[in-house]
Structures are given as C-alpha cells and as structure tokens.
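Next comes a single protein record:
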Amino acid sequence: MKIAQLASSVESVPPAGYGGTEIVVNLLTEELVEQGHEVTLFASGDSKTAARLVSITDHSMRADHTIPQSRWAAYDIRTLLKLEEMQDQFDIIHNHMSWQALPFLANMKKPVVTTNHNPIRDYCKDIYFAYRELPYVSISDAYRRLNHPEEINYIGTVYNGINLEDYRYQRDNDGEYLLFLGRICHDKGTRESIEIARALKLPLKIAGKVDRRDQDYFDKEVKPELGKNGIEYVGEVDLLQKNDLYRNAIAITYPINFDEPFGLVMAEAMACGVPLLALERGSVKEVLEDGRTAIVGNSVEELIQRFPELKEIRPENCRKRVEKLFGKAEMVRNYIKIYDKVIENQNSLIKQKA
C-alpha cells in the first residue's frame, strides 16, 4: 500500500522533546515501513524516518525562534499544497495535521482519513462541521463521545500505541518522588500536582515543556514553588531521561483539568510499571483501571486521601495492560483495517457514480 502520512511542521517527527502526536506518527510510519508499505511522511526537515520524507522547511517551527507563531500556519499550508501536487502517488492519505488540512482533503482525488488527536474546540468546530462527511478516527471512545458524535463521521477508534521496547520495566525501589510529566499548563494540572505533593509531604519532579502561551502560567503557578519542599523542575526530557524518571517514581500525578483524548503519559508510565494518581476526565478510565493500575478520583482531595491504596497496585498489572491494548503493533494493525475500509468505501462510491 502507498500511504501518505501528513504531520504539521510545528514539531519534528519524532519530537525532539515533548510531543504526543508526533510520537504516534513516528511509530505508525516506521512500523508501516517495516511491514513493507511504501510510506511518504510530510513533516519538517529535521524529522528522522525510514520513509520517504517530504519537507518544505529544514527544521520544525518550534525549533526556530526567529519565526513568530503567527506564521506557523503558512508552513502547514505550503505542505498541503505539496501534498495536493503529489496526491496521485498514494493509495490513501492519513492526516494528523488537524483542522487546517480539511479544506484541502475535501478536494483530494485519493481516499483520505483524519485522526483527531486533540479536542474539537469552539474556534474550529465549524470547520469540522463543514467537512463532517470526511472519515475521522477517534483515539478513544471517550474522545468520540465528547466531541460531537452526531455531527462528525467517525469510522473507528484506534488507541495510540507505544513501542514497549523503549520503556524499561524496571523498578529499583518503591520510588523516591512523585512525577509530573507533560506540558506545563492548567489543562495538564501542574499546579494541582504541586498541591498533591505538598499535602503528602513528598518530593515532586516536574518534567515537560513550557509553551510560549503557557509562560505566564508557569511564572505564576509553578515557578514560585520551585525549591520548596522538594518541588523541582527538570525541563523537557528525552526518552532516556523519561525512563530514568519513571524508574524511580512512586507514582505519576495526573490531575488533569480537561477531557484528555488519550494521554500517552498514562501508557508510558504503566509500561514502566508505575501507577498513576489521576482525575476522572476524558479517556482516563478507559486507559487506566482504578485500583489495579491507578487511583482514579473525582477530586484532588480524593487522590490525596486514597494515596495509601497505591501500595496494593502491582507493577506487572500496569505492564500487562499496555501489552494488551497500547502496543504499536496493535495500533498499526487497527490502522491498516481503517485504510482498507476507507479505500473500499471510496471505490464503492466511484462505482455508484459510474
């Protein structure tokens, strides 16, 4: 099968640091190549892939601080124009770029499918509604339920996968600290993680990027707490650093303030045998098992109160859940089913019009 994978030029594939969507695109692309498919990845020039790489810029937008964020969309549009020019080379086009690509995809002659990696916000929902008949994939059943299931043409759910070989199932001890890993922002619950650590009198390591739009949040809600009671910010981390952090963590704090579509951190932590303290939002109860791989509560206070229950969670239960549901092989197998379905539907429509 000849497959185009379409990513934004904002981040490289895989990302240099934090980047959930780009990790998924990388795993999907490389595994499809490994299975013998002809894959073309549309992404920034600093991406690393065994597929054919098509780029309109030498590096990701986030890596170039001379380009203002207001211009980033122009690079995605240029990528879409290049894809439009090359579309006859593919059997199917898989969009991970989000809503920006929809007007272009609607005019493609080849079958297309879009994975919705992020919630459909008010500022872009009219764009989705205008192209509601295009085929979409949700990354969890919770995502579909929470993001206009009556208006959007969801044709399937495919869980994000991780490469289990990248995550060491090695617990040297019961853990030394709580760990927050993710984008530093209100949605991800960084401040709430600090509250949990303070209440439990435990050290907290905070790892992740601070976007420009979140700098004020970091300065007001996080920075004043650093250096107090073992609260430490370690910055963005790569895969090796993440493994080291997971290995020595008591638990991952996950007190999110939004309906998380999936949350790769949950799968990564479980792969390392690390349980989570998580608020029940979005896909959390779909990815985690309360009392078996995590403590899932309805408030920060409940997570603090139930903290002693973590001792009952066995690391092997965490790893087994990821092996069953969230490995890259399972993700790719399900996407190939989606591709076949979309191509078959397109061929049926062509026959009906003939």
Summary: The radius of gyration is 21 Å. The chain has a mean pLDDT of 93. The chain has two domains: 2-161+327-353, 164-325.
